[in-house]
User: Which sequence fits this backbone?
């Protein structure tokens, strides 16, 4: 059975900012609060919102605020997103803090955060992660 999160756009981290295509409406665009020279654009898409952080002309972080209708739908969405963002590499769980889980891709070039409390999933580059925190 299809759900809205089955059709979420799969974005390529580190692609040039002018190559990012979102099938949705730009809702807002603000400077990132913790990262110099970064901008976060929020798009309304079927199933929720996507927050894209562009830094030095490239896509460095995608936050999927796309709540699923069921645990099964959330699991299917996350499997799809982790497979796409893994690009053939696996993921290692680093931390479970009771609110969500933190992961690193096995090549240590990407991170992921999955909030099971709020059903939000984030993928980003480690270079950006080090700057924003």
Assistant:
């Amino acid at each position: 059975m299809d759900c809205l999160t089955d059709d979420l756009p799969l974005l390529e981290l580190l692609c040039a900012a002018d190559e990012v295509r979102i099938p949705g409406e730009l809702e807002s665009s603000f400077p990132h609060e913790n990262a110099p020279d970064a901008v976060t654009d929020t798009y309304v898409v079927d199933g929720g919102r996507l927050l894209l952080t562009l830094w030095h002309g490239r896509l460095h972080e995608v936050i999927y605020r796309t709540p699923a209708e069921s645990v099964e739908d959330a699991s299917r969405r996350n499997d799809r997103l982790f497979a796409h963002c893994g690009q053939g590499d696996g993921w290692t769980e680093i931390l479970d803090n009771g609110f969500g889980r933190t992961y690193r891709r096995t090549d240590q070039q990407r991170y992921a955060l999955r909030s099971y409390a709020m059903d939000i999933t984030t993928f980003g580059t480690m270079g950006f992660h080090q700057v924003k925190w």
Observations:
- Residues 50 and 64 are 5 Å apart (CA to CA).
- The helical segments are 71-86, 126-132.
- The chain has a mean pLDDT of 91.
